[in-house]
Amino acid sequence: RITAEQIRRNPALILIDTRSVEEFTGERDLDNQPGHLPGAHNVVWRELIAGPQGYLPDKEKVEGLLAHAGILGGDSIASYCRSGLRASVGYLVLKELGYNVALYDGSYRDWIRHGFPVENNLVH
After folding, report:
1. What pLDDT is recorded for position 123?
2. Is the pTM of this model over 0.90?
3. Is the CB of residue 50 less than 8 Å from the CB of residue 57?
C-alpha cells in the first residue's frame, strides 16, 4: 500500500488511474473536483481483465496497454481509482505479472480530501 504523502514525495513514481476515461478527463465528475492526479496515466480496469469471467489477461496484452500509456516494465507504479476497488484490480494484475506496483487504496477521494492538486482535460 501507498499513501498520498508517499506519492507526493516520490516524483519518479508512475501513477495508473484505473477509472473510466470520462472520470480521468474530468468529463464525468463524481467528487465536485473533476480530473486525475497530476501526471497520471489512464488504464481502465476493465481492460486489465480477460472476458466476462474476469480472468487475468495474457502478459502481452497488459504490456501493450502499459506501453500505449508510456509505462515500462521497470517503472515503480501506484494504482488508484476513486476509492480503491477498481485500483485493486490493477494492482493484482500488475503484481501477478511481476511489476513493481503499490495500491493507493485511499485513491482519488483521499487525494482531494487532502486538498492536493488535480489535472483535467476540460477546456475552460
Report:
1. 62
2. yes
3. yes
